[in-house]
Write a structure and sequence with these properties.
Distance between the termini: 28 Å
CATH class: Alpha Beta
Radius of gyration: 16 Å
Strand order of the largest sheet: 1-2-6-5-4-3-7-8
CATH topology: Rossmann fold
Helix content: 25-40%
Number of strands: 8
Shape: globular
């Protein structure tokens, strides 16, 4: 279960871009774990903080998830304490990335596509994993009430707007719908972000 406690929250004006449009919302709400705000400020003084985002397939085969984790460790290992991983925490590539970031001592930021994401989209067999990861992260929820394709793409655009680099766990194929991995990779490249594609030999999707 999520640790309720009394996490700090901040509310600010919010905007994101979808394709060539910029969409502004009234407000976005961000929840920080206890101590995370002061930690972020201290990291900003005299440290080089690298913010890395993730996009990727949610339907990785079990053996593929292990191969992907190994490649992510190799990519991220050099960052260590100055690493901030930013993710929408979907099943599959996002959660593999989140586990590796935490394993290497990095900080985790989660961007949820909509207020109903946990209830509607997290399956019972993945709930414990999701809850454990999100409890250790600062959480930003996009101002959508319903998790849908527009919400997913808006959340991914928000991730792209806040990172220095993107890792894409991607087989190179087209998106299965608006807001899929290929769309996010294209949006990242349009922004001029450095994109590292991870798709190990023998990788497979379910």
């Amino acid at each position: 279960m999520l640790r309720r406690g009394r996490p700090a929250e901040s509310v600010s004006s919010c905007e994101t871009s979808i394709g060539k449009r910029v969409v502004r919302y009234g407000s976005c709400r961000t929840r920080h774990p206890r101590g995370r705000r002061s930690e972020a400020r201290s990291l900003g003084r005299g440290h080089s903080v690298v913010r890395i985002g993730i996009t990727g397939h949610s339907n990785l085969a079990e053996a593929t998830a292990e191969l992907v984790a190994a490649e992510l460790r190799e990519i991220l290992e050099g960052q260590r304490d100055d690493l901030v991983g930013v993710t929408c925490l979907a099943r599959g590539a996002d959660q593999v990335f989140a586990r590796v970031v935490r394993e290497l001592g990095g900080s985790l930021e989660v961007v949820l596509p909509a207020a109903d994401y946990r209830d509607r989209k997290v399956k019972p067999d993945n709930a414990a994993e999701f809850d454990g990861l999100i409890a250790a992260a600062s959480v930003h929820t996009m101002p959508f009430t319903e998790s849908n394709r527009d919400a997913y793409m808006a959340a991914s655009e928000h991730v792209l707007s806040s990172v220095d680099k993107l890792i894409a766990v991607w087989d190179g194929g087209p998106s299965g719908g608006h807001g899929g991995t290929a769309d996010v990779v294209e949006a990242a490249r349009d922004r001029g972000l450095d994109v590292t594609v991870v798709w190990p030999k023998h990788a497979a999707r379910l």
